[in-house]
Task: inverse folding
């Protein structure tokens, strides 16, 4: 019966993250929700604190937390270059520290964590794609805070959450690609209009007009698109005139 309730709750959490993803492709919002809901889910007999570490280009950073103490706890690992979270990210494996006083894998870090009032730690990887990976970090002031059932629950939840995260990252990338494409086409439109204006004013060829623009860009150390925009505005006799690309 307890396991049935756990599965039902996990499905509710997963659906909640998926609903959030449908409402917004903001990966940051999704990660914040992941940290908050994880803390609420795993705080059964005692309160735990959760954070999400994102590793990009081999550089870790805390991108979401359920408690204001978490960033400092994470920074202890980043500063020392070792700890359960970093190991979980590197090995893509769950790392459990039942009692930080007895763990010998990262002596400098565990000593610092104990001094900060942390008794046990759980780090679960959230595999993404490409150069990025993430991990869910769970901290408790109590030693031996995470039972086998709690660890399985965190792993199952992280697995489902990582699916939503991968989708969010893909959607965000598509949005970025679309915005970059539109910006490039708008820039091209501005340059084309400026070239046409220069050709009309100077009765020159398209090649000569482009050369004039490039010389102005180089001599003024200004981007070609900005020089073109200035030309268009001067021809229109209105500095507020901008070219626009309709997608």
Result:
């Amino acid at each position: 019966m307890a396991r049935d309730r756990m599965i039902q709750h996990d499905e509710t959490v997963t659906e909640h993250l998926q609903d959030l993803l449908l409402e917004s492709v903001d990966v940051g919002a999704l990660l914040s929700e992941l940290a908050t809901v994880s803390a609420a889910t795993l705080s059964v007999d005692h309160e735990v604190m959760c954070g999400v570490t994102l590793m990009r280009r081999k550089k870790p950073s805390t991108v979401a937390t359920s408690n204001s103490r978490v960033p400092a706890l994470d920074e202890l690992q980043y500063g020392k270059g070792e700890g359960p979270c970093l190991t979980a990210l590197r090995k893509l494996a769950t790392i459990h520290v039942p009692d930080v006083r007895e763990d010998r894998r990262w002596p400098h870090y565990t000593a610092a964590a104990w001094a900060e009032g942390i008794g046990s730690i759980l780090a679960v990887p959230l595999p993404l794609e490409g150069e990025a990976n993430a991990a869910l970090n769970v901290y408790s002031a109590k030693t031996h805070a995470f039972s086998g059932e709690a660890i399985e629950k965190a792993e199952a939840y992280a697995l489902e959450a990582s699916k939503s995260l991968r989708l969010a990252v893909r959607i965000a990338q598509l949005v970025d690609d679309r915005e970059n494409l539109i910006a490039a086409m708008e820039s091209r439109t501005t340059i084309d209009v400026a070239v046409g204006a220069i050709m009309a004013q100077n009765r020159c060829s398209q090649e000569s007009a482009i050369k004039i623009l490039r010389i102005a860009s180089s001599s003024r150390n200004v981007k070609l698109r900005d020089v073109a925009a200035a030309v268009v505005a001067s021809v229109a006799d209105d500095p507020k005139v901008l070219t626009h690309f309709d997608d």
